[in-house]
Amino acid sequence: MTAGAVAEVLHVPGLSAYVEEVESALEDAVAWAGEMVVGAAGAETLRSGGKRLRPMLVFLSAPVAGRGGPGLVAAGCAVELVHMATLVHDDQLDAAPLRRGRPTVWAAHGADAARATGDYLFARAFAGLCATGDMPAVSTLSDACLALARGEVLQRAQTGDPATTPDQYLERCRLKTGRLFAAAAMLGARFGGLPGDDVARLGAFATALGLAFQIVDDVLDCDGRPDTTGKPLGTDLLDGTITLPLILGARRDPAVAGVIARGAVPEDVLPTLARVARARAVTDARAEAERHADEALAHLATLDGGLDTAALTAVVRGAVDRNA
Asked: What separation in angstroms does the CA of 149 have from each of 55, 174, 244, 301?
């Protein structure tokens, strides 16, 4: 989210206090292992920061009158722990040296520690949510985690394949990003007391929001500022991760497709990203993100139930207008 959008959303009554409660719950969750390596690595991951967008989405998806329940903190903590776990595992799979400008768990502690830390964070997420006694909520989060795993399998299958289609990419993003956004919104709605139909509509809203968010993330890997994003340009290109701007660029420029197919080296990054930009692939990918943002807002327009739709709209705009 942009700084302005974050500031606007944090003015929502009760949100800052809620985020502080979630932060405290996250600290307790990662500290459970004491001085074991997974506890230390989990604490490092927590200290690396993040937007805490998913916990904020939990809170904002609850109706204003239903934001006092303890389940909201447990849900916000759980979805953020799952998100943290996926980042630790992704960094290990990608052999990524940095995350938000800091050494990854893989880089600092090795592959075995990264796998164990990710597993530990997943376990703590479900332990906290199970403590609420709400098994349908646990099922919502577990379904999202299964989708994450399916999305990761798709990403590995698409690695280095310039023939990947936009639809295949979007399905991967729906599984890897959209479904966890949806779980956050649905958990907030459920613990906030919304009826089942509205819970489902909020899930559709958040899925579209997650797609817009992920596309912008992938665009920033092509034209963002490393001092803002916390990682060098072209990380996806070097990893062989096929993103929408690279897919569109490969369709329009055989040289881009050739680099992706043979595997990029560092010297390829800037010339290839320049070709991607000249092919208008970055511009068109941003337009696709806007399309999904519009879809999210259309879902939001069907909801009432005492929701703060202005704040949720600000989240959508912040997700697509950001530079980090």
From this structure: 21, 12, 20, 31
Mean pLDDT of the chain: 92
Largest CA distance in the chain: 56
The alpha carbon of 244 is separated from its chain's Cα centroid by a whole number of angstroms, namely 16
266-318 pLDDT tens trace: 999 999 999 999 999 999 999 999 999 999 999 999 997 789 999 999 999 99
CA angle, residues 4, 8, 11, in degrees to nearest 5: 140
Distances (CA, A) of 240 to 3, 178, 187, 301: 31, 22, 34, 38
Domains, the chain? 3-313 (1.10.600.10)
The CA distance from 110 to 304, in Å, is 48
The Cα–Cα gap between 32 and 26 comes to 10
The answer to whether the beta carbons of residues 166 and 248 sit under 8 Å apart is: yes
Residue 267 CA: distances (Å) to CA of 97, 275, 303: 18, 14, 50
How would residue 25 be classed by pLDDT, with cut points 50, 70 and 90?
very high
Q: How far apart are the C-alpha atoms of 89 and 106, rounded to whole Å?
A: 9
**CB contact at 8 A, 21 and 73:** yes
Could you count the other beta carbons within 10 Å of the beta carbon of residue 40? 19
Compute the distance between CA of residue 270 and CA of residue 115 in angstroms, rounded to an integer: 32
Q: Which pLDDT value is given to residue 2?
A: 53
Q: Has residue 9 got a pLDDT over 80?
A: no
SS3 103: strand
CA distance linking residue 184 with residue 53, whole number of Å? 9
Q: Beta-strand (E) ranges in the chain?
A: 98-99, 102-103
